[in-house]
Design a protein that fits this description.
Layout lengths: L1 H18 L4 E2 H8 L8 H13 L3 E4 L7 E4 L5 E6 L5 E5 L21 E4 L6
Parallel strand pairs: 4-6
Antiparallel strand pairs: 1-3, 2-3, 4-5
Helix pairs in contact: 1-2, 2-3
């Protein structure tokens, strides 16, 4: 029965992340997963998130002075918006063109991340 519990926990974590329309912190994942698997703990969330990042199913979203957030790795390229009131981070679909044009001569761009800050619709 112990193995089934672990499977249920990982499945719940994947369901929570898969259903989310925004990157989630480990605490947010825990809060949602507890509704599916009561008794799941934060250590279990971290252990499973680490495994899901290692396997390539998840990627991290790191913002300055913020806890790491997690989102599915298969999402199209996008950027993020952080609400300055509630602190939640939201996906912003698409990308502005011309980012390479901002580079000084001789620089080579490998990837980029744009984070916008303001108030989300709920807090506005």
């Amino acid at each position: 029965m112990k193995g089934k519990r672990k499977t249920d926990q990982k499945t719940a974590i994947r369901e929570v992340i898969g259903a989310s329309r925004r990157p989630l912190t480990a605490q947010e994942i825990l809060d949602e997963a507890q509704a599916i698997v009561p008794g799941i703990g934060i250590a279990t969330v971290y252990r499973n998130v680490k495994s899901l990042v290692s396997s390539g199913w998840l990627r991290t979203v790191d913002l300055p002075a913020e806890p790491t957030r997690y989102e599915r790795h298969d999402l199209d390229h996008h950027h993020h918006f952080q609400c300055e009131d509630c602190g939640r981070v939201f996906d912003v679909p698409g990308c502005t063109g011309g980012v390479r044009d901002l580079l000084p001569a001789g620089f080579q761009l490998h990837h980029h991340e744009i984070v916008m800050y303001g108030l989300c619709a709920e807090c506005n």
